[in-house]
Design a protein that fits this description.
Elements (H helix, E strand, L loop, with lengths): L1 H10 L6 E8 L22 E4 L1 H4 L8 E8 L9 E9 L9 E4 H7 L7 E7 L1
Parallel strand pairs: 1-5, 2-4
Antiparallel strand pairs: 1-6, 2-5, 3-4, 3-6
């Protein structure tokens, strides 16, 4: 019975996740709406994002962390892994082209394709 419970917990990891789209944005990444020009705001590996209005929460999103993975997109873009990202900015474009804009490094960590919008699953951690 304990193995069954463990299997259910692993499978349920993304049960409460949200679905959205992701694309990437290019440097320069500073200044940001969260921490201005402070270089130390960026996590190791440059796995950070800017979020659209729906996630921005009047700036309360700054510093939030999300676990995300690629679900689908043109020409099978997905790498089969999850990444953890940190919110450092608000998507400046109006309208924002995606739910989440990933740094180039974050996008490359989950997708083989550059320059294309992908479908993602994400959950706040």
């Amino acid at each position: 019975m304990p193995l069954l419970v463990l299997a259910m917990l692993i499978a349920a990891r993304f049960v409460h996740a949200d679905i959205g789209t992701a694309s990437f944005y290019n440097p320069p990444y500073i200044p940001t709406k969260c921490d201005g020009s402070r270089e130390e705001q960026f996590p190791p590996g440059n796995l950070f994002v800017a979020v659209s209005e729906g996630l921005w929460d009047n700036g309360a999103a700054c510093g939030r962390r999300y676990r995300l993975r690629c679900l689908s997109g043109p020409k099978r873009p997905c790498k089969h892994r999850t990444i953890d990202v940190k919110v450092v900015d608000f998507c400046q474009a109006s309208p924002c082209p995606s739910t989440i804009l990933l740094s180039r490094d974050a996008f490359a960590a989950i997708s083989h394709q550059h320059g294309r919008k992908i479908n993602i699953e994400y959950i706040q951690i």
